[in-house]
Every structure is written in C-alpha cells, then in structure tokens.
Amino acid sequence: MHITQLNQECLLHLFSFLDKNSRKNLAKTCHKLLEVFQDPLLWSLLNFHSPLELKKDNFLLGPALKHLSICWYSERVKVCNIEDWMKNSFQKDFCKRHENTVSDFLLDVSNRCPNLLSLTLSGCGHVTDDCILQLLKNCPNLKSLKLENCVRITDHTLEAVTLHGASLRTLHVDFCRNVTQTGLERIREKCPSVMLRAERSANMIPDSEPQKKLMLEKASRKLVQL
After folding, report:
1. How many helices, marked H, and strands, marked E, lie in the chain?
2. Residue (of 164, 150, 148, 154) closest to 110 by Cα position
3. Closest Cα partner for 135 from 149, 148, 151, 153?
4. Do 37 and 82 fall within a single domain?
5. pLDDT digits 0-9 by tens, 212-222
6. Is it the case that residue 94 has pLDDT exceeding 70?
7. Which residues pair with 68 in a beta bridge?
8. In this structure, are residues 178 and 212 in contact, taking their beta carbons and an 8 Å threshold?
9. Which residue range or ranges hold the F-box domain (predicted)?
10. Residues 100, 35: one domain?
C-alpha cells in the first residue's frame, strides 16, 4: 500500500511524529500530503528553539493551536537578558536584530490562536508586559503561563493576570528580575487558586534604578549583619 492510500486520520497520525522541517519536505511530494500538512489538527502543539525558526514557513498558526513553547538555550540568547550597560557592541547588535522577533510572533498568536491553553517562554529577553497582556485578553482559555528569564516582564504582567487570567491555573515567573515581592504577594492574594512559582525573581537585582538601589541597600545590610 502506498502512503497516499491511507486515510486522513492515519496520515495525520504519521505526520505527528515528524518535526516541522520533515513535515514540510514531505508535503512537497504530492497534493495529498500537502493537504495533510495544511490540516489545522496537525498543529495543536508547537515548539521552537531559535529565533530563526519563528520566521520559517514550515508550520501553521490557527485556532487549533493549544500548546506553544519558545525556549532559547544558546549562549547567544543569554545576552538578551544581560543589562544593556554590560553588553559589548556585538551583543548589542545581536539583540537589536532580534528585538521584535518573539513579540511580533506572539501578537500574531494572540490574534489567530484564541484556544491556546499553555504558553512557555524561556530566555525571551525582549518579550514585554504589553505582549503578555494581549495574549491574556485574546486567549481566555489559557491555563498555564510559564515565563523563565524573561527580563522585561514586570509586575504589570502580574496585574494583567489578576484582571484577565480567569482560566489560569499555573504561573511561573522564574528568574524574571523585574518582578517584585509586592507583585507576587498581590497575585497570591487576588488569585489564590493559581499555582505560583517565582524562583529567584524578587531576589535578583532589577533594572529600574529605585528598585536596584533598594536591593543593593538590603544586600549591604545583610553583609553588615554577618
């Protein structure tokens, strides 16, 4: 039996085991397999590991998307999370080239994927509070929001959760240095049913000068006590 003789359900199952590039390459072989590639049911889960992947045409965005993960683990990605004054010219150039890559993609997701259930972002140093706010507004079924080392995320995202995260059950803001203890306490008070995790966030040195000064003063007092 030739693969094209299989029904749509079987073909979708086979395609589900392939990565995005393999799906795209197989879709180029005939119209039947192209139809499978274009079936929204194939794209309920998307994982990305590089900013370049977001710009490819080897996947589809649509209402069927339920789970999205964008996790950058390379050494170059980490430079986006370094304070601007610490970056060299190469690092600044790299960050500038990818300034809006993830944010623009997520805004597209918020407009086209209203049934999103879970979002995981790791190392996405340019994602802003406004971007997460739009997602919470446009994806009312979102149950899990995991943000790790997303340095531009602040208490404004936590406030957006209290206002628009009615379905949210899991919230991680690990290593988000501009999230404060006050913001975390507000989430615990306003959203007691949400499983909150914020490893290191409120204990890291923030970017804003008033918060940074306060953190340094606290650290100094601890050293004196020791």
Report:
1. 10, 6
2. 164
3. 153
4. no
5. 555 545 545 55
6. no
7. 46, 119
8. no
9. 9-46
10. no
Work out how many domains the chain is built from and give that number: 2
Q: How long is the chain?
A: 226
Tokens representing 226 are 């020791």
Helix (H) or strand (E) holding 144: strand 144-148
For 63, the 3-state DSSP assignment is coil
| Residue 129 CB contacts under 8 Å (≥ 6 apart), including other chains | 152, 153, 154, 156, 157, 160
In terms of residue numbers, what domain contains 23? Answer: 1-42
Q: Say if residue 33 is in the same domain as residue 117.
A: no
Give the pLDDT of residue 156: 97
The residues facing 31 across adjacent strands are none
Rounded (to 5) percent helix, strand, coil in the chain: 50, 10, 35
> Do 105 and 200 fall into the same domain?
yes
pLDDT tens per residue across span 113-153: 999 999 999 988 889 999 999 999 999 999 999 999 998 99
**Are 96 and 146 within one domain?**
yes
Residues 30 and 112 in one domain: no
7 and 77 in one domain?
no
**pLDDT, tens only, 32-81:** 999 999 999 999 999 999 878 999 999 999 999 999 999 986 665 566 66
E strand map for 14-125? 45-48, 67-71, 118-122
Assess contact for 176 and 203: CB atoms under 8 A.
no
Of residues 18, 202, 49, 46, the one with CA closest to residue 119: 46
Q: Are residues 220 and 161 in the same domain?
A: yes
Are 117 and 142 within 8 A, CB to CB? yes
Q: What's the pTM?
A: 0.83
